[in-house]
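#structure-requests
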Amino acid sequence: MCKDNSWSEQYKLRRAAAQRFGRIFALPIVRRVRDVLLACVDDGARVLEVGAGDRRMGELLRKSRANVDYRSIDIDPRGEHDYRSLDEIDRRFDCVFAFEVVEHIAVDEIPAWLSRLAELLEPGGRLVLSTPNTYYPPAFLRDITHRTPLCYDELAALAAAAGLDVGRIARVYHDPVHRVLLRRYLFGWLFEMIGIDFARQIVLVAEKPQASG
C-alpha cells in the first residue's frame, strides 16, 4: 500500500511499471542475482544485507570489492549478525539488499518494511531485491513460509511507493547451457503462449533519489 494508504494509487503505480518494463517475457535474463548485486557495489561501499543467513554474500563482496563495509541483519539467533532488527540500525548505506526475503512478509507489512529500507539508504544508494517469479509457480509454492507472491510489476510499484526510482528488473535463470538454449530459444514461444515462465526468480534494482536543493 502507498504512503497515502491508497490501493488505487498502488494500482496506478503497478500499471505504470508494467507499461514501462513490458510483459514478464520482455524482461532481460541474468544468470545470477549476485552479478546484479556486484554491479551495484563499488569499492569502499557500505553495504547491508537483510535476511543474511550464513553471510556468504559478505564473503563474496569482500573478495570482489576492496574495502567494502559489509553489515548483516537476520532474525536467526544462531547467526553472528550485526543487527537483529531494522530499528537497531542508526546509520546509512550505499547499498541495501534482500534476496528471497520479501515473499516471507505479510502483504500489509511490506510497505513499511520497504520504507524503512529506503530510509537506510544514502541519497543515490541502491536497493536490490529478489523474489520468486510468480510466472514460475513452483518457485513460490515449494516453501510453506512464503506468505506473499509478488509479480514483478507489483514489486516495482511497492518500491516506487516507498520513494525509490526503479531502474532495472530482470529474470534470473541459471542452468546448464543446453537447458538455456532449449527453454529460451527453442521452447520460449510455448512458455509465452501458456503464460508460464522458466525463470525462477526476478531481481529488482531501485535507487534513492538525490536530495533536492
